[in-house]
Design goal:
The strands form 9 sheets. This protein has a 15-stranded mixed sheet, with no helix packed on it. The chain is 14% helix and 22% strand. By secondary structure, it is α/β, with parallel strands linked by helices. The longest helix has 31 residues.
């Protein structure tokens, strides 16, 4: 009984196997693979790459989902080039010599989600080429020769999410070119000939989340370049070597979380365009000639966690540079010109996890002691910071050795005795304040009104630490304070300035005062600069003045003489008839009477 059941089961399984084989064979018979192509039945893939094809092959299986036609010599796509491939989802036509695509060439590919046309010779994409591609999500038209995007070029691609248009010859993007791209999330316009941001065209992309510019001819970023892109989260601008500045409102309206401006020509951090980006988490300004990061200007970027400024020209990161950044986790300033990085630059070093400080000419003193103390909590990216002596910062030491590491010497003013300086009104005085320390201290001056003096104006703090008062006035008198400070401490020196008002009855010898006083190359401490004159000098000056006067008068007379000679024969006498006033009065009394006249003869000289 059991043997009969076993035989019956064996026969059933054999029949099923033969049926499956027959179905497979009949299926293979219905789906022949075109010549020069390789077909994979399981993946429903047809690979015709490197087949020397000049046209799309006929007889492609109708249920094909992946079609690879790369590295061929296909030059043209005609209308409805793929009429039977209704299930095709991925079409790759890259690396051909395609120059023309007719309107509705892809009509019928209702399931297509990915279309690659990179590395061809397309110069223009006619309107209507993408008709019927209602499910397309990725379009790659990179490395072609496209010159312009016409109005409504992509209007049929309502489901498109990604466009790659890098390395084309684009010179213009029409204002309505992106109309219809209601689902686009990422756009790459890299390596084009655009000299301005296509602002009007971008306003059509309300759902755009990522925008990439690479190797464009931008010189500046104008105001409101990206208006109406409220959902844009990532903006990448790289290798724009002429981009020198960002206008104050160039990023207005954006809610970026990531901003990259690399390999450009920015000489300063664009604080004003950045200040409203309160959602910014990632900022990369690497490979720009930026020289410093100033203090207290990043405070509005409350969510900033990473700052990359690699390969720049950084000389100084000021105290308070990252104040207000309570979530700051990563700073990468490697390959710059920094000599130190003080702990006071950070809002809190407790949140810092990664620090890139290598390839900087660091001076290893007490300003970097905080780095050594937090060495166990910091990731240096595998390259620890190195001093200018090519010695790495110490990482292995005992607690007793710590006080002797990375020491500093407090600032000290060399001439620390209080000074009293007197100067006449209108003169210029320079007060020196020399200081020393390790690291070299900075010198500042405080006015009698307890205000920090700037390096500009009539009263200014010079770069060498001196105080200059030009054209001193009585109201400048008071107690000035010189302050020398470094990381180890500070020192101060009071200086009293007395400006003597100008008096006309002064018995001092004659000298140029007031507005005629000029500072000498090495002015004295008191600022007095007397320029005396003697009697001989006055006589010489008067003689020269008289000679100049008489010479001018003589020249005038000579000129008049020759001018009169050039007018020909002149009369030397003239007769003038006139009526005396008395005769005129009597004539009014009696009308009709004869009026007497007189004549005078005058000699002209």
């Amino acid at each position: 009984m059991f043997e009969g059941i076993a035989v019956h089961q064996w026969l059933c399984w054999g029949a099923l196997y033969l049926l499956a084989v027959g179905v497979a064979l009949s299926s293979e018979t219905r789906r022949p693979c075109p010549q020069s192509c390789r077909c994979t039945t399981v993946l429903l893939e047809v690979n015709c790459s490197d087949g020397q094809l000049t046209t799309v092959p006929d007889g492609l299986p109708q249920n094909t989902k992946l079609l690879n036609l790369t590295h061929n010599k296909i030059k043209t796509l005609v209308r409805q080039q793929f009429p039977t491939l209704t299930q095709l989802s991925d079409l790759d036509l890259s690396d051909n010599i395609m120059a023309t695509i007719e309107v509705e060439a892809f009509l019928g590919l209702q399931s297509l989600t990915t279309l690659r046309l990179a590395c061809n010779h397309l110069k223009i994409i006619p309107v209507g080429v993408f008709a019927g591609l209602t499910k397309l999500k990725l379009l790659d038209i990179s490395s072609n020769e496209i010159l312009v995007f016409l109005d409504f070029t992509f209007r049929d691609l309502t489901a498109l999410q990604f466009i790659k248009a890098a390395d084309n010859d684009l010179v213009f993007i029409s204002h309505q070119a992106f109309t219809g791209l209601t689902s686009l999330q990422e756009l790459r316009l890299d390596g084009c000939n655009l000299t301005a941001v296509p602002t009007e065209a971008l306003t059509q992309l309300g759902r755009l989340r990522s925008l990439h510019f690479h190797r464009l001819g931008l010189t500046t970023l104008p105001n409101y370049s990206f208006r109406h892109l409220e959902r844009l989260g990532e903006l990448v601008i790289t290798h724009c070597r002429w981009l020198e500045s960002l206008s104050g409102n160039s990023l207005f309206g954006l809610n970026l979380t990531s901003l990259t401006i690399r390999h450009c020509n920015l000489s300063a951090v664009p604080y004003i365009p950045l200040h409203h980006l309160v959602y910014l988490v990632y900022l990369d300004l690497s490979f720009n000639p930026i020289t410093d990061i100033r203090g207290n200007l990043f405070g509005d970027l409350l969510r900033l966690q990473e700052l990359h400024l690699v390969g720049g020209s950084l000389l100084h990161i000021e105290i308070g540079a990252f104040r207000g950044l309570a979530r700051f986790k990563l700073l990468n300033v490697s390959r710059n010109l920094l000599t130190t990085l003080e702990v006071g630059a950070f809002h809190s070093v407790d949140t810092l996890r990664t620090l890139g400080l290598d390839n900087n000419p660091l001076t290893c003193d007490c300003r970097l002691l905080w780095v050594v103390r937090r060495r166990l909590y910091l990731d240096f990216g595998g390259i620890p910071p190195t001093c200018t002596t090519s010695v790495q910062l110490p990482v292995d030491f005992t607690k007793a050795e710590l006080p002797g590491l990375l020491t500093c010497r407090q600032a000290r003013i060399l001439n620390n005795k209080p000074q009293e300086v007197r100067v006449d009104q209108g003169h210029t005085v320079v007060v020196h304040c020399n200081a020393e320390g390790d690291p070299p201290p900075s010198v500042t001056w405080i006015s009698p009104q307890l205000k920090l003096l700037s390096p500009f104006g009539r009263i200014q703090a010079l770069s060498n630490g001196s105080l200059e008062v030009r054209y001193a006035q009585p109201q400048d008198s008071g107690a000035y304070l010189c302050v020398a400070s470094n990381a180890a401490g500070n020192a101060s020196l009071p200086v009293s300035l007395h400006v003597r008002a100008f008096s006309p009855s002064s018995k001092n010898p004659f000298r140029l005062n007031g507005w005629f006083a000029f500072p000498s190359a090495s002015p004295g401490v008191n600022g007095n600069q007397n320029i005396q004159f003697d009697v001989k000098t006055l006589l010489v000056a008067a003689t020269i003045g008289l000679l100049s006067f008489f010479s001018s008068v003589s020249v005038c007379f000579i000129f008049m003489f020759f001018w009169s000679k050039s007018k020909g024969q002149l009369k030397h006498t003239a007769t003038i008839a006139y009526v005396p006033r008395s005769a005129l009065s009597s004539s009014n009394g009696g009308k009709g009477k004869h009026m007497e006249t007189s004549r005078y003869t005058m000699k002209l000289i």
